[in-house]
Amino acid sequence: MTIVRAQKTPDRTPPLSETSILGWMQKNLFSSFFNSILTIITLYIVYITVSGIYIWGIADATFVAENRRECYNNSLTGACWAGVIDWFDNIFYGRYPREEIWRVNFGGLLLVLWMAPLWISKVKGKIFIGISVILFYPFLAGYLFSGGEKGLFMQVMVSGAIIAFIANMLNVLTSRIKGQSLSKFLISLFRQSNASDKSQRNLILGVLVISFAAVFFWQTGWSLEGVVWTKWGGMFLTLVISGVGIAASMPLGVFLALGRQSKLPVVKVLSTSFIEVFRSVPLITVLFMATTMFPLFMPEGFVLNKLVQVILAIILFNACYMAENVRAGLQAIPKGQSEGAHTIGLSYWGTMGLIIMPQALKHMIPNIVGNFIGLLKNTTLVSIIGLFDILGMLRSISKDAPWIGLHKEPLIFGAIIFFIVCFSMSKYSRHLEVKLSAGNKH
Amino acid sequence: MVKVANQDNNVRIRPKEEFNFFQDKRVRSVFYQLLTAGTVGWLLWYLASNTTQNLALRGMNTGFGFLDSVAGFDTDFKLIEYTPGVGTYLDIFMIGAINTLLISFVAIILSTILGFFVGILRLSKNWLVAKVALAFVEVFRNTPLLIQIVFWFIGIFSLLPVVKKTIDLSFGSEMLLLNNRGLYFSTPIFGDLFWLTALALLTALVGVFFLRRRARKLQNESGAQTKILLPSLALIILLPSFTFFITGMPLAWDIPTLQGFNFVGGASLPPSFLALLVSLSIYHAAQIAEAVRAGILSVNRGQTEAALAIGLKPGKVTSLVVVPQAMPAIVPPIISNWMDTVKNSSLAVAIGYNDIVSLFMQTTLNQIGHAVEIVAITMAFYMTISLIISGLLNIYNKRVQLVER
Question: Same structural domain for residues B287 and B392?
Answer without folding.
Answer: yes
